[in-house]
Specification:
By secondary structure, the protein is mainly alpha-helical. It is built from five helices and two strands; from the N terminus they run H-H-H-H-H-E-E. The chain has one domain. A two-stranded antiparallel sheet has the order 1-2. 0% of the residues are buried. This is Kinesin-like KIF17.
Length: 162
């Protein structure tokens, strides 16, 4: 009866000391390996979000507390990211409004200069090369180095009769 009990309770190898030693070594190696992995993860990632996944808990309450802390950390990160996104969006909106204002102001200035040119063009002498504004625009060249237009010099063309 005792022999049957040993076989049922501990199996056929219940009294095998070599097998028990081998199991103890495996368990010890697994514990050491787990500790090494946990230390490596903790060093490489201070957030310890992966650390919670490798942790072995003694009770469900510990697991719940650890995961609750992780959830709180992630919620804080999420709120910080959402705040940053809102700040960036408002900053971009302000820049957009500023650019649109600049564009409108430049368009008004362009219209003013165009109207001035239209009025002044009739006052320019016909024998001056500036009487034809389209020709002047065509002959003007943008200079990248100085950042301004090179406009042809005004010339009065006198017609000599034979």
């Amino acid at each position: 009866l005792q022999m049957l009990e040993r076989q049922v309770v501990g199996g056929e190898q219940a009294e095998n000391k070599d097998l028990k030693e081998k199991q103890k070594r495996r368990k010890k190696y697994a514990d050491e390996r787990r500790m090494q992995l946990a230390a490596a993860l903790q060093q490489s990632n201070e957030d310890s979000s992966d650390w919670v996944l490798l942790n072995v808990y003694d009770s469900i309450q510990e697991e719940v507390r650890a995961k609750s802390k992780l959830v709180e950390k992630m919620q804080k990160k999420l709120r910080a990211a959402e705040t940053e996104i809102k700040d960036l969006q408002s900053e971009f909106e302000l820049e957009k409004i500023d650019y649109l204002g600049t564009i409108r102001r430049l368009e008004r200035d362009l219209m003013l200069f165009q109207q001035l040119l239209d009025r002044v063009q009739s006052l320019i002498r016909r024998d001056c090369n500036y009487s034809n504004l389209e020709k002047i625009k065509h002959e003007s060249v943008w200079d990248e180095e100085t950042g301004c237009w090179k406009i042809p010099e005004p010339v009065i063309q006198k017609t000599h009769l034979p």
